[in-house]
Structures are given as structure tokens and as C-alpha cells.
Amino acid sequence: GENVEQHPSTLSVQEGDSAVIKCTYSDSASNYFPWYKQELGKRPQLIIDIRSNVGEKKDQRIAVTLNKTAKHFSLHITETQPEDSAVYFCAADMNTGFQKLVFGTGTRLLVSP
Amino acid sequence: DTEVTQTPKHLVMGMTNKKSLKCEQHMGHRAMYWYKQKAKKPPELMFVYSYEKLSINESVPSRFSPECPNSSLLNLHLHALQPEDSALYLCASSQDGGSNEQYFGPGTRLTVT
């Protein structure tokens, strides 16, 4: 089955710096890769996603890149702000016909003022 | 309405109790999901309903019983739970069972005593 590895497990940056979180997946049939942000005590919120027919997608300060050959994808946050502090989860679908997302283990991002 | 709602927010139950968790969405989504999330861990898929039919059961113990009365509602019936079942139970929905965005509800924090 699908396995998603996520690194780093924790990431501390200064406000204004960039942050990069990387994920690798094992199932070459996966074609949908969402990223979720979860603040303490809150629900996971979809912040950006990418499909296998696209190599990069941007939304303001957030971008995701996908390398299907290498089976890895990354989240890039530029000009980080304290409110970006949260746990970020990557995920990959198993392309079973019924959407099953397999999540990475999460990255705790801390942005210091 | 672009939200998934869940009730109750918190639930404390004994091991001999029977209780139910409820989830509702009015986005016209035809796929609904139950996830279990332990502290500092990613969400783990439990069940997927697609067009009101159970499509995926991730080998969940029978003390958890899902029900989808209609396309907007999803229930999770709980009976004879164990303390290790204490967790955040998240509901999510998506347009259908394909590779589409999943939107999460706020979750029910369950404590089994």
C-alpha cells in the first residue's frame, strides 16, 4: 500500500524567512497530493493541492512542487508569519476509485517574531 | 454553506455506554469520511461512504458502526469502547469519491473512561 514520508518533523524559522517541507510517496499510481494545515485544537484545513499532470502550483505565499519521477512533492511558504505556525500534513491518494488519502506524519512549523 | 459540522464537540463515555457522533454537510458532496486522530499523529481513515453506500472500511473494530442516513448526514455509533479509543474523531466530505478536495469538520473529542 501507499506510504508517505514527511520531513522535517519540526521546523523553526524567523518571521519573514522561507519554510520548505518535503514528502515522498511510494505508490506511482497516486495522482492527487493535498496539503493540510492544522492549528492546535482545530480541524485540518486544506491549504493547497496538486495533481499529477502539474509540476507546480502557487497561491500567494504558498507553493507546491511535484516530481512524479522521483515521487516527491514539497510545500514552500515564503515570507512566513507567526500565524503560519501550525502542524502541516502532506497526503497522497491511493487512486483506488474511492478516495483514500494517506497522510504523512506531520511537520510542526514554528515561526518566531 | 461551505462547512462540515459535527456534534458533539466533546464526549466522555464509559466503556459500557452507547453513544453516537453526528456529522452534517450541505455542500452537495456525495462522499463522506470518518477519521480518527490521536494526539500528535495524522488522521487515520476509518470509513468512506460514497453515494450513501459504505465503500471503504479500514478493518475498524465492530464497536464502531457507521451509518449514512442520507447524502448530508453521517453518523458513527459507538458501543463498548476501550480507553485506547479516546481520540479526536473527524468527519470529512468531498464532491465524490474521486480525487477531490476533502473538507474536514471540527471534530469530536472523545474520552473513554
Put the structure in a nutshell:
The complex is a heterodimer of chains A (113) and B (113). Chain A has 113 residues and is mainly β. Chain A has no helices and eleven strands.
Order of helices and strands of chain B: EEEEEEEEEEE
- Rg estimate of chain B, integer Å: 13 Å
The count of strands of chain B amounts to 11
| Largest beta-sheet details of chain B | 7 strands, mixed
SS-based class of chain B: mainly beta
Low-pLDDT residue intervals, each spanning 5 or more residues of chain A:
none
Assembly annotation: heterodimer
Distance between the termini of chain B: 36 Å
Bin the helical content of chain A: under 10%
Structural category of chain A is mainly beta
Number of helices of chain B: 0
Shape of chain B: globular
**Major sheet characteristics of chain A:** 6 strands, mixed
Overall description:
The complex is a heterodimer of chains A (113) and B (113). By secondary structure, chain A is mainly beta. Chain A has no helices and 11 strands. In chain A, the strands form 2 sheets. In chain A, strands 2, 4, 5, 9, 10 and 11 form a 6-stranded mixed β-sheet that branches. In chain A, strands 1-3-8-7-6 form a 5-stranded antiparallel β-sheet, with no helix packed on it. The termini of chain A are far apart. The mean pLDDT of chain A is 94. Chain B has no helices and 11 strands. Chain B has strands at residues 4-7, 10-13, 18-25, 31-37, 44-50, 53-57, 64-70, 73-79, 87-94, 103-104, 108-112. In chain B, 36% of the residues are buried. Chains A and B meet through β4 and β5 of A and β5 and β10 of B.
Which key features would you list for this structure?
heterodimer; A: 113 residues; mainly beta; 0% helix; B: 113 residues; 7-stranded mixed sheet; 4-stranded antiparallel sheet; 11 strands; globular
Indicate the topology.
The complex is a heterodimer of chains A (113) and B (113).
Chain A: E1 4-7, E2 10-14, E3 19-25, E4 32-38, E5 45-51, E6 56-59, E7 62-67, E8 72-77, E9 86-93, E10 101-103, E11 107-112
Parallel strand pairs in A: 2-11
Antiparallel strand pairs in A: 1-3, 3-8, 4-5, 4-9, 6-7, 7-8, 9-10, 9-11
Chain B: E1 4-7, E2 10-13, E3 18-25, E4 31-37, E5 44-50, E6 53-57, E7 64-70, E8 73-79, E9 87-94, E10 103-104, E11 108-112
Parallel strand pairs in B: 2-11
Antiparallel strand pairs in B: 1-3, 3-8, 4-5, 4-9, 5-6, 7-8, 9-10, 9-11
